[in-house]
Design a protein that fits this description.
Length: 358
C-alpha cells in the first residue's frame, strides 16, 4: 500500500516537472477555435500572487462564453479577475481572461482544466478544455526555521503616575485660568480692578442721590428732546437711592413691587405715594411713549429732590448721638456699602449724562 502511494506521488511530481520543463503555456485546439492557458511563474511562496491567463482564439462566426470569475481553480484562491475586450486581427478574434490567484499552503498544486463554452453556426454548444498547469508552493520560512510560536501572554505595562499627574495639573491650570479670565473680563467691563484694594468709604446715599440729580438737571437731555433718556436716568437715581437707604432690592422691581417693599419698611404713606407717582410717570415715558412737557419734567425732578430730602438719614452731633445710643441700646444708623450692581447703575447713569451733555 505504501509503495503504491509512493509511485503515484512520484508520477505526479514527474508530470509537474515535465510540464514546467516543456513550457508554462498549454494549448488546446478544436475546429476553428484554440485555447492557451499560462502562468507567469511556476515556483512561488505561500501567499505570493500568480497571474493565470487564458487566451482564446476563434473565427468571427463563433460565439465564445468567457470563463466566469467564480470558476474552480483547485487549491488556489482568486484574488482578482479581468475580462478583456476581444481583439480581431487577420480574421482571428483574440479573447483574453486574466486571473490573479494565490495559494496559502505549501506543496505541489495543479490548476485544473478550465472549460470554454462556444457556439458554432449550427447553434450547437461545444466545450473546449484547457490543460492543467502545475505550480510548486514553498514556505516563506527558511529551511530549519521553527514553525509559528505560541502567542505570548499579555505584557503588563507599569502604570505611569507621572503622566497622570501632568494631565491633572494641566486640567487644573486650564480651569483656574478660565475662572481668573472670566473674573478679569467682568471686572474690566465694570471699570474695576481685578483685586479689591482698600478704598475710601462710599458717600451717604442721599449725597450720591443729590449729586446725580444735580448732574441730571444740568444735562441737555430735556433741551435736546431726549425725554425717554431723562426719565430712565431719573428713575434709576431714585431706585438706587431707595435701595441704599432702606436696604431693599428695588432696582429690578416693578413700581408696584417697589411701593409694597417700602410699605414693609414702615415708610410714611405720603412718601410711598410720591415714589409711586414719580416711578409710574417714568414708566409711562419709558414704555408707553408718553411725552410730558418741560414743566412736568421739572416738577418731577423737584419731586425727586423732595423724596430724598424727606427720607435722608440725618447725622447727629457726637453728644446727641451718644445720648441716643444710650437710650436705644447703642444702635447706630449707618449707611451700608453699595453692592456691585448699584455701583454699576450709578456709573452707567453718569456715563449717559456725560454722553448726552457732549
Amino acid at each position: 500500500m505504501d509503495r503504491r502511494l509512493l509511485r503515484n506521488k512520484a508520477r505526479l511530481i514527474f508530470v509537474i516537472i515535465l510540464i514546467q520543463l516543456l513550457s508554462v503555456s498549454v494549448y488546446a485546439r478544436q475546429n476553428n477555435i484554440s485555447v492557451e492557458s499560462k502562468v507567469d511563474k511556476t515556483n512561488v511562496t505561500v501567499g505570493e500572487l500568480v497571474k493565470y491567463e487564458i487566451n482564446i482564439r476563434f473565427a468571427p462566426e463563433i460565439t465564445v462564453a468567457a470563463p466566469p470569475p467564480g470558476i474552480n481553480l483547485g487549491g488556489f484562491e482568486i484574488r482578482d479577475y479581468n475580462d478583456k475586450d476581444p481583439i480581431e486581427n487577420d480574421g482571428i478574434v483574440l479573447k483574453t481572461v486574466e486571473f490573479t490567484i494565490a495559494a496559502y499552503d505549501t506543496g505541489s498544486f495543479v490548476i485544473p482544466p478550465t472549460g470554454i463554452l462556444y457556439f458554432t453556426d449550427d447553434t450547437v454548444a461545444n466545450t473546449l478544455f484547457t490543460d492543467g498547469i502545475g505550480i510548486r508552493v514553498e514556505s516563506i520560512l527558511e529551511t530549519g526555521t521553527e514553525d509559528i510560536l505560541d502567542i505570548k501572554s499579555n505584557l503588563e505595562i507599569p502604570y505611569n503616575w507621572r503622566n497622570r499627574i501632568i494631565i491633572v495639573t494641566v486640567v487644573l491650570v486650564v480651569i483656574i485660568g478660565s475662572v481668573i479670565g472670566y473674573l478679569y473680563y467682568r471686572k474690566k467691563k465694570r471699570g474695576e480692578s481685578l483685586f479689591e484694594w482698600k478704598k475710601e468709604p462710599d458717600r451717604p446715599a442721599h449725597e450720591s442721590a443729590f449729586s446725580a440729580l444735580d448732574d441730571l438737571r444740568a444735562s441737555d437731555l430735556l433741551r435736546e428732546g431726549k425725554i425717554k433718556e431723562f426719565y430712565i436716568v431719573l428713575s434709576d437715581i431714585i431706585r438706587l437711592y431707595l435701595q441704599r437707604r432702606y436696604f431693599i432690592p428695588v432696582l429690578e422691581k416693578t413700581t408696584s413691587e417697589t411701593v409694597e417693599l417700602l410699605s414693609k419698611q414702615n415708610v410714611e404713606s405720603s412718601v410711598a405715594s410720591q415714589v409711586k407717582g414719580l416711578l409710574s410717570e417714568s414708566d409711562l415715558v419709558k414704555f408707553a411713549k408718553f411725552a410730558p412737557d418741560d414743566n412736568a419734567s421739572e416738577n418731577n425732578i423737584e419731586l425727586a429732590y423732595e423724596i430724598v430730602e424727606t427720607t435722608k438719614i440725618i447725622e447727629l452731633p457726637d453728644s446727641e448721638e451718644d445720648n441716643r445710643n444710650e437710650g436705644d441700646g447703642g444702635e447706630n444708623v449707618k449707611d451700608l456699602e453699595v453692592v456691585d450692581d448699584e455701583a454699576e447703575i450709578e456709573i452707567k447713569a453718569k456715563e449717559l449724562l456725560e454722553k448726552n451733555s457732549k
